[in-house]
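Sorry to interrupt, but I need a hand with the structure work. Could you add the entry underneath, on a fresh line?
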Amino acid sequence: MIIFKDILNGDELLSDSYEIREVNDAVYEVDCEMVKPTDLNSINIGANPSAEDAEDEINDNVKEVINLVHGCNLVYLGHEETRTRAFGSRKDYFSELKAYLAKVQEILEKDGADPAKIETFKTGVGNYWKSNIKDKFQDFEFYKGPNESVLGMIVLLNYREKLDKKTGNMVEIPYMILWKHGLREEAF
């Protein structure tokens, strides 16, 4: 298994157990799923209940969560109950993004990255911003890693249509955006 950690603060933000698509050699788009988290103390091991045991109860009141958000303990930036998000304006977010990308570039340079790789990173992020985020900014939500460090990557969330292989219908799924060069891969 490969874990992807934020190069600025070490937060685990992703693993290769999710469906990852690389875009512009600068971005990872991750198709996510809505799941119901289970109580790990009551794992169904597949045994049949005995005659004297009550039927297993199914709790339909469990709130669905986005698998990547839940699995990596990502923290919503904003007020979760009202869904008031951080970064009310595109300008506010872009200012934060520019500062973050400058820190990533500094680390890449310090680590001796090839200048062509750094240029690919900068161009790829710029092109992705212009074609995928800028005009749809109001549709995005924002997340941080579990330690909520000011230095950390801001992970973006949006929704898109995708073909459901089971039903053959188009369904709306959450997807998250992470900046490829802001992550370090660690094999486990």
About this structure: Residues 39-47 have pLDDT under 50 and may be disordered. The longest strand covers residues 170-179. The helical segments are 67-71, 90-110, 115-133. The radius of gyration is 19 Å.
